Amino acid sequence: MEVRVFILVRERTFADALATRLEAEDDVQVLAAVHARAPSPHVIMGGQADVILLDGDLPDDASLRLCEAVSQRGEAPYVVIISRSADPGRIVRAITAGAVGWVRKDESLGRLIDVIRGVVRGETWLPPSETGEVLRLLLRERDQEEGDGPLLATLTRREREVLVCLAEGTGRRDVARHLNLSANTVRTHLQNLMAKLGVHSALEAVALARPMLDNPPSDEMTAY
Questions:
Q1: What pTM value is reported for the model?
Q2: Which is nearest to 217 in space by CA: 137, 159, 153?
Q3: What does the alpha-carbon distance between residue 89 and residue 189 come to, in Å, rounded to a whole number?
Q4: So where are the chain's domains?
Q5: Cα atoms in the 13 Å half-sphere on the side-chain side of 217
Q6: In angstroms, rounded to a whole number, what is the distance separating the alpha carbons of residues 187 and 172?
Q7: What's the Cα-to-Cα distance from 164 to each of 63, 70, 88, rounded to whole Å?
Q8: Which architecture characterizes domain 3-120 according to CATH?
């Protein structure tokens, strides 16, 4: 399946370099590579992108506002933030705004391409060294909110099984094998449970499921 990518970063040379490298992949099509310091939401509201690569270093939290604007669309594209930093607090804010991936700008282009392919399969990608802290911050936020119990109660038995497996650190493919389901069925269950819980990513859903488990989150998990 060809992945259609829209690039929005602040530096022209970075935008052009990303576009050139991604276009070299047989399964990636770059729809546009835009450079801007303070883009308005309408810049990315058109088109039919599957993935938006969004600069997380835009001034005045512009990337967060753009994430929120994109996530409010029906059939919204997946937003992957690319940034110089990997601050857990900023990552959590991006996830709650609708982003499904965070990649440092000094990561290899090979890793970025893996992330692009992963998010269209429904995965959430984070810097490995920050995954544990991001989960803990998400848990802290959820602990301060009320009503999570009733939300979890709306899940079907199979949806809860999928969620618990993910919270235990089981990969998507292993979840399918463990529950004797196809990968597409697991993806459908995950999409349904995320809609019921009112979250944008599997990572947020996992944060809700953690109270159902006794073990703390693993720092080794990078893709959900």
A1: 0.70
A2: 137
A3: 29
A4: 3-120, 143-212
A5: 27
A6: 8
A7: 31, 29, 23
A8: 3-Layer(aba) Sandwich (3.40)
